Amino acid sequence: MIDRASHFLLDGQAGWRTGSVDKIGFVCGELRLQPMPGAIRPLVDSTGSFGGLQNPEGLAVDSSDRVYILDASACVVKRFDRCTKQFATLPCIGPQGSMPRRLSSPHGLAISCSDNIYIADTENRRVQVFSVKGLALRRIWEPLLVKQAPAGISVKPSTLVVGRGAGPGSDCQSTFPDGTWQPWDVAVTSRNWAYVSDYANGLIHGFDPRGCWRTAYTGQGPSTPQ
Predict the structure, then answer these.
(1) CA-based nearest residue to 186, from 99, 51, 88, 77
(2) What is the C-alpha separation between 198 and 184, in angstroms, rounded?
(3) Beta strand segments in 65-212, E
(4) Is the dihedral of CA 141, 176, 180, 189 positive or negative?
(5) Cβ contacts of residue 101 below 8 Å, gap of 6+?
(6) What is the distance between the alpha carbons of residues 191 and 34, in angstroms, rounded to a whole number?
(7) Positive or negative: CA dihedral 188, 194, 199, 201
(8) pLDDT of the residue at 51
């Protein structure tokens, strides 16, 4: 027999009356029990571990306030799902490799106000740009060979150089020539200009909204070294 004094019908017509809301919460429009203490680490966990994921290489937020992190160890990008309260790996970006969409030791992550995802694909010596919607690969800023001269800084495409291994009978090894940029981090302005830090050359490269290289900065000033 149902004790009608302590039970209520919950529907659109009767309304959402509740006898007690202790340990009950609404998540994405659904009525759910609150998790047990310590069961799932929330995004705002006081340990700063981003839901149990330690030391993400990059952190960015899109125009819908969704949080993304760059997991460098797995070479993937993850997005926080508010419903499950967990980070979900984005498909078609990563894992390890040198082909388009693959990553190698990535370090930097940024999202523009037009919802483009920029990833500093460090060991592949490039920057890959994806759209948030559909994760389409919009462009790849290929490896650049940087030349610094008194007249200024210039860049041109850089290609892998095939060389012999260290010992007899060893396999050939491919390396980038000295001076090839090494994208480490990315920042994007409100006008969609992107700035990429170059670890190998100690520079900041500037790209216009069309993705064209425009200039590079050494950071040197009257009282500041390069």
Answers:
(1) 77
(2) 6
(3) 67-71, 76-81, 86-89, 108-111, 116-121, 126-131, 137-141, 144-149, 152-157, 161-163, 173-175, 183-188, 194-198, 203-207
(4) positive
(5) 92, 93, 94, 128, 137
(6) 42
(7) negative
(8) 56
Q: How many other C-beta atoms can be found within 10 angstroms of the C-beta atom of residue 185?
A: 19
CB contact at 8 A, 154 and 147: yes
State which H helix or E strand residue 24 sits in. strand 24-27
Distance between CA atoms of 208 and 153, rounded to whole angstroms?
A: 17
What is the dihedral sign for C-alpha 192, 198, 204, 206? negative
Confidence tier at 225 by pLDDT (50, 70, 90): confident
Over residues 41-99, the pLDDT tens digits come to 666 565 555 655 656 789 999 999 999 999 998 999 999 988 888 889 999 999 999 99
